[in-house]
Structure formats: C-alpha cells, structure tokens
Specification:
The chain is α/β, with parallel strands linked by helices. Helix content is about 20%, strand content about 25%. The chain is globular and about 55 Å long. The N and C termini lie far apart (about 40 Å).
C-alpha cells in the first residue's frame, strides 16, 4: 500500500486544531476551528475522492481519540467518510494506549514503529491513509515512509500553533502531482515524494 497523508494547514503552516475550538488547546492555542468557514461542495468532493481510495488507516494517538469519539456514532452507510472509517482496518500508533474499543483497530508502535509501518505498507492494497496525526507524520517523514502528501492550504494565517514541517526535519524533494482550488479559496495540492533536494545557484 502507498502511505498517504491528508493535512489541513494555514498559510503560515499551522496544522493545530482545524476542526474545533477544543480539538487541541496545547500550548494555549486559542484558534481552534479555523478550517470550518471554508467547507463547500469542492472540498467535500475532494474528501470523498480520498476516502474512496482507502484500504486502511494509520492514526496518531490524538487523532485516534478525536475520531473514535465521533465517527462510530455516524452510522449512515452512504456517508463516504464514516462508512470507510468504521469498516476498514485502523492502526493507531501509541506507546501508552492499552486498549482500542473502535471496531477494527489495532495498536502498533510499542516496539518498532518504523518496522511495523513498513510491514503495513508491504501488505496488498491501494492506500494506507493518514489524516492529521502531524506528530506521527513528522516521525514517519524522517524515515521516508510517507509517499504522498495532500496539503489543503486554507487562506488564513494564525501566527501561532503546531506545524507539520518542524525544524530539523529530513530534507526531502517532492513532485507536484495535482492542484485545484475550491470555491472558498482552499488550495489542494498533491505532492509525491521525489528523493533529496537538488541545489544550485543563480
């Protein structure tokens, strides 16, 4: 399976708490819910396309807690997100979680996260998908394990908050594989990992 990451971020790179005020107030973050004003049919169509390609999900502990508290209650079989999240295999990376009650969930990462994620990618299928889970994403990008990034850039800057690309990350080149803009100005860019950066001068 290809490992893909779908991530919401602001113009200044903030990924913290896009979905609601109380999603993540870490470090005193007060801007939660910043993505909510930008939902539209274009945004929904893209999300449906992404979830249609999923064969399994890989989640960080924080994202798992948020998803597991919400999506199992969404039981409409026609919902393109809920139907897949509730029925497909889910892997949550955690060294502290002792039980996962959401049906189809297995805890990984206690011993060797890189080895376990590599083994998941070697299983047959289309996409092993990550949504959010930026801390986990940073760990996996440091080992070249994420193949595709879907970065949804929202037309807002917040000035504070957690970032996807942290200082000291692995230098990586990407190839732009596609781009579109929603009616409300969200730029959706898909990048494929393409090795190491090349350098030169003008």
């Amino acid at each position: 399976m290809k490992l893909t990451l779908t991530q919401f971020l602001t113009l200044d790179g903030v990924i913290q708490a896009p979905g609601g005020p109380d999603e993540d107030r870490g470090s005193g973050f007060e801007h939660g819910g910043w993505s909510a004003p930008y939902g539209d049919d274009d945004f929904g169509a893209f999300i449906t396309e992404v979830f249609d390609r999923a064969d399994a999900f890989l989640l960080g502990r924080g994202t798992y807690d948020i998803f597991a508290g919400y999506w199992p209650k969404m039981t409409d079989p026609a919902d393109p997100v809920a139907s897949r999240l509730n029925s497909l295999p889910k892997y949550v990376a955690s060294t502290t979680l002792t039980a996962a009650d959401w049906q189809g969930t297995r805890i990984i990462g206690r011993d060797d996260l890189v080895k376990e994620v590599t083994a998941l990618k070697e299983q047959p299928g289309r996409e092993l998908q990550m949504h959010g889970s930026a801390g986990l994403a940073r760990s996996l990008m440091a080992h070249d394990l994420i193949d595709t990034l879907h970065l949804l850039t929202f037309p807002v800057a917040l000035g504070t908050g957690k970032r996807l690309f942290a200082e000291g990350g692995l230098p990586t080149a990407f190839r732009l594989a596609g781009s579109r803009t929603t009616s409300k100005g969200v730029v959706i860019s898909t990048y494929e990992r393409a090795g190491r950066p090349e350098y030169g001068s003008f």
